[in-house]
């Protein structure tokens, strides 16, 4: 769950970004710029990341502030779930990544599964839309919605990608160390509930 200082910094940044998008008065612009500086100062004081990097990654976007979208593909075979080992941290995750401009959510899921695991799939069902702040992920500067889309394998075979070093299927009681930035153990176990009960309703939280 998010700490209060991170929640405040993200909220202040969102107000500043949206305000700068629509403000016309020079004094209003100055005030929104000051709010943006405050949000950066909060993160600088509570993390080990440099002020320059925070300003670049956290406080440089323009336009109306909206959540980012992370899309994860959920694939089962022989009652096991498909996971890929991330080169970045050596831990395992459902294949997926940020939503791409020009692609629908299901198209992103299909693309990411192909790129990270080698499998050709077809999307079948939206299982869950989760707000990342309500789950036990490490703190991060973005507000993120996570889409979990079930897909079925229609061809090809397991092949690692640029960002992955292994591709395997795991049983619900034999999960490897997970990349908590990408998915939690509770989220992966929840996906197995859809395998056990195909009538289970889509989760939205």
Number of helices: 5
Number of strands: 8
State the share of residues found in helices, binned by percent. 25-40%
What number is the mean pLDDT?
A: 93
The arrangement of helices and strands along the chain is HHHEEEEHEEEHE
The radius of gyration is: 19 Å
In terms of structural class, how would the helical and strand content be classed? alpha+beta
- The total number of structural domains is 2
CATH topology description of the largest domain? Nucleoside Triphosphate Pyrophosphohydrolase
- Ends distance: 14 Å
CATH architecture of the largest domain: Alpha-Beta Complex
Name the overall outline. elongated
Largest sheet, in brief, is:
8 strands, mixed
| Beta-strand proportion | 25-35%
Structure description:
It is a single chain. The chain is α+β, with helices and mostly antiparallel strands and 205 residues long. Strands 1, 2, 3, 4, 5, 6, 7 and 8 form an eight-stranded mixed beta sheet that branches. The protein folds into two domains: 4-57; 68-204, Nucleoside Triphosphate Pyrophosphohydrolase, CATH 3.90.79.10. Helix 1 packs antiparallel against helix 2. The protein is built from five helices and eight strands.
Outline of the structure:
The chain is of the alpha+beta class and 205 residues long.
Describe the secondary-structure layout.
Elements: H1 4-22, H2 26-46, H3 51-57, E1 68-77, E2 80-86, E3 92-93, E4 96-98, H4 105-117, E5 120-131, E6 144-155, E7 164-170, H5 185-196, E8 203-204
Parallel strand pairs: 1-6, 5-8
Antiparallel strand pairs: 1-2, 1-4, 2-3, 2-7, 5-6
């Amino acid at each position: 769950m998010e700490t209060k200082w991170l929640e405040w910094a993200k909220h202040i940044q969102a107000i500043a970004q949206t305000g700068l998008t629509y403000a016309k008065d020079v004094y209003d612009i100055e005030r929104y710029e000051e709010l943006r500086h405050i949000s950066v100062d909060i993160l600088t004081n509570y993390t080990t990341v440099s002020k320059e990097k925070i300003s670049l990654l956290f406080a440089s976007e323009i336009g109306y502030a909206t959540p980012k979208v992370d899309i994860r593909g959920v694939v089962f075979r022989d009652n096991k779930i498909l996971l890929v080992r991330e080169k970045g941290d050596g831990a395992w995750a459902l294949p997926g990544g940020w939503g791409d401009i020009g692609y629908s959510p299901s198209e992103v899921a299909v693309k990411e599964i192909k790129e990270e695991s080698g499998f050709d799939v077809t999307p079948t069902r939206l299982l869950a839309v989760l707000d990342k702040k309500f789950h036990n992920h490490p703190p991060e500067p973005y507000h993120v919605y996570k889409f979990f889309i079930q897909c079925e394998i229609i061809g090809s075979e397991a092949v690692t990608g640029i960002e992955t070093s292994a591709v395997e299927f795991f049983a619900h009681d034999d999960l490897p160390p997970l990349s908590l930035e990408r998915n939690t153990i509770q989220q992966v176990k929840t996906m197995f509930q859809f395998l056990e009960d195909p009538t289970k309703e889509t989760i939205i939280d």
